[in-house]
């Protein structure tokens, strides 16, 4: 994939869709191979724990950008961004469970500053920090129904925005409290409104 080389140096993603707790589950230290454990499997180190997050939501799909591919822009996340995306993957996993394990379509996760600019994202977008995900779940319902289900759950999100065709979920930076701020944005030009506004 041009512009979305998400593989960290020295790490080879393997079966990222393996779900822990199922018959097919494998120890998560096998999710990534490194040159050091290629021949000698070892217990995961603290630094590897973030990869446990990428179970149903892979690093690849949280970094994929059609605009980056089309325009040849770099969308490679740093190690810090990958750690943040791990937090997003955990929240998304909780959301998927809340939606009855219905399929979720990720529209956009991480966006580098230049990719964010290319798609018209806001300047200080949480997407640029790997702390947000835009998604929909037509199998569950409309974006309004998805947003309401999340608002009525105990899921820890920092910001939830009902947008025009999808739901944006932002996750708090490490060490920050989740604000559980809920907004609606009816169109690219519209101002943010508080709460979930049906009919948007
Ligand atoms: Zn977003």
Number of domains: 1
Rg, rounded, reads 17 Å
Low-confidence regions: 1-50
Shape: globular
Largest beta-sheet characterization: 6 strands, mixed
Please report the first level of CATH classification, the CATH class: Alpha Beta
Listed once per kind, the bound small molecules are: zinc ion
Structural class: alpha+beta
The CATH topology name reads Muramoyl-pentapeptide Carboxypeptidase, domain 2
The counted number of beta strands is 8
Number of helices: 5
Name the helicity range. Answer: 10-25%
List the topology elements:
Blueprint: E1 12-13, E2 32-33, H1 59-63, H2 66-71, H3 79-98, E3 105-108, H4 113-118, E4 132-136, H5 143-151, E5 159-162, E6 167-170, E7 181-184, E8 193-194
Parallel strand pairs: 5-7
Antiparallel strand pairs: 1-2, 3-4, 4-6, 5-6, 7-8
The protein binds zinc ion (ZN).
The site of zinc ion has 4 residues, from strand 4.
């Amino acid at each position: 994939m041009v512009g979305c080389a998400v593989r960290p140096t020295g790490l080879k993603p393997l079966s990222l869709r393996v779900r822990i707790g199922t018959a097919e589950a494998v120890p998560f230290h096998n999710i990534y191979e490194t040159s050091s454990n290629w021949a000698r499997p070892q217990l995961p180190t603290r630094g590897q724990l973030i990869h446990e997050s990428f179970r149903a939501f892979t690093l690849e799909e949280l970094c994929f950008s059609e605009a980056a591919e089309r325009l040849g822009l770099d969308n490679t996340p740093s190690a810090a961004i990958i750690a943040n995306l791990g937090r997003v993957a955990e929240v998304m996993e909780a959301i998927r469970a809340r939606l009855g394990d219905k399929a979720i379509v990720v529209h956009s996760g991480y966006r580098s500053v230049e990719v964010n600019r290319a798609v018209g994202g806001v300047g200080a977008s949480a997407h640029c920090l790997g702390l947000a995900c835009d998604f929909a779940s037509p199998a569950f319902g409309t974006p309004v129904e998805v947003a309401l289900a999340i608002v009525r759950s105990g899921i820890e999100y920092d910001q939830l925005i009902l947008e025009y065709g999808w739901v944006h979920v932002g996750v708090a930076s490490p060490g920050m409290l989740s604000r559980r701020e809920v907004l609606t944005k009816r169109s690219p030009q519209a101002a943010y409104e508080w709460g979930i506004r049906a009919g948007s």
